[in-house]
């Protein structure tokens, strides 16, 4: 590999980013210094916070680079990616401008290629690595021997279960070639009618199949179980909630953890408490970030309830300070972009996630703990509120600029005319329907 390959293959010109930053740098410095003075009055060194934030990264899903659509329709945009190579290129733009998303989470069979070591090199040349691999047993593929229409890992049909197990093991094998160390398993298994399947025996079948996948995990690998309350099944789902998830993870073994998708809970559930509970039992394995208003898991992270995102990160900082049996969650964005350019949405989401993280760092931990111990409810609440009210954008702008990203990501992206260029070069997306 040529030494200058990384620089030469990045999709956005570094000169454009430098020019963009130069125009905004004076005001960022002014705001950063003012915030630094404010924080120093409470004993906080802004540079320490900045350096910690600079180390935080979140993965993006390969499928997030396309317009997701809903169950009803999909409205493609010109220049949308149609294969893993184009998706990687778009993910490189997100990382180049945000400097916070250096890993891509692939999905199989959607991202299948013939040569995975070449794909790994291609990603590396774009400044990217691979995160958790995602299996797919929620839809049928052309030429597939057994249908998942009535379930996959929990199917009543032994041959269908075996096929689903085999697919998950294949995902692990592909992941090993890509440098991944986690397998995320979400199944759409469930029912639409009371009585359709036995609620106990369907879980037995799931656990038996999942144990076969678990047995195939290489030494350092983890298996992350993602629960979801409903959809595609609307009466019962086999792994519907964090209770089912942690029970399954505990019965499968130490290398099996739970993954929390923020949009996969019942409405108004206290997700931050779920996070604390999973951590308490050493089972917090990963996150899918998104937001929701009703029962969806599609909206951009922090777009509806940024306070909840902050409270989740407050628990994550607590967990980081008090690790139990290891604390190394896999962070990923998982949302569906129906009305925006996915690159813009994922950059804005990375910013929302890092903002919540930064505010959680700013919580006066000693003051919070002291207020909790003294049962001073108002002071405890104010310890959180005070951090949440802080405008941390100068810290994030400075982090991006110092790492080579863009101070105003959306503006720099639009100036680059990347999507317009791709709309000339890429073939149009078909009017396929439904979720990616
Ligand atoms: Mn998810």
UniProtKB/TrEMBL annotation:
Keyword match Kinase: no
Highest rank taxon of the organism: Bacteria
Molecular function GO terms recorded: isomerase activity; metal ion binding
Start and end residues of each Xylose isomerase-like TIM barrel domain: 116-301
InterPro entries: L-rhamnose_isomerase, Xyl_isomerase-like_sf, Xyl_isomerase-like_TIM-brl
Keywords for this protein: Isomerase, Manganese, Metal-binding
Pfam families cross-referenced by the UniProt entry: AP_endonuc_2
Protein name: Xylose isomerase-like TIM barrel domain-containing protein
Species per Swiss-Prot/TrEMBL record: Hyphomonas johnsonii MHS-2
Organism phylogeny: Bacteria, Pseudomonadati, Pseudomonadota, Alphaproteobacteria, Hyphomonadales
